[in-house]
Amino acid sequence: ANTELAELHSLIQMMMFWSDSHLHHFISNNVYYEPKDEDEDGLGEFFTNKTMDYTNIKVSQLL
User: Fold this and answer.
1) CA contacts within 13 A on the Cβ side of 50
2) Closest CA to 32 of 61, 6, 54, 14
3) Beta-strand relationship, 26-28 and 31-34
4) For 11-45, how does the pLDDT look when each residue is reduced to its tens digit (9 = 90+)?
C-alpha cells in the first residue's frame, strides 16, 4: 500500500514482460492519474473529466 503509482506501473510492466510502449493511467473516483507529460498540449482536459499527475501518489490513497 506504500507503493507509488509509478512504481506499480513499473512492476506491472516487468511482470508482464511489456516494454512500456503505450500510454497508461490509473482511475479512481472518476479521476485519471497519469504520469506527468512534459509535452502536454492541453488536449488531455478535452478527453477526460479530470486528470492528475501521479507523481508521489500512493496506491493506498486511491483505495
Assistant:
1) 5
2) 54
3) antiparallel
4) 999 999 999 888 889 999 989 999 987 666 555 55
Domain, as residue range, for 31 = 5-62
List all residues 6 or more positions away from 33 whose beta carbon is below 8 Å from its beta carbon: 5, 25, 26, 27, 51, 52, 53, 54, 57, 62
- Secondary structure in 3-state letters for the chain: CCCEHHHHHHHHHHHCCCCCCCCCCEEECCEEEECCCCCCCCCHHHHCCCEEECCCCEHHHHC
Residue carrying C-alpha cell 512504481? 7
Give residue 43's identity as a one-letter amino acid code: L
Query: Into how many domains does the chain fold?
Result: 1
What is the pTM assigned to this prediction? 0.75
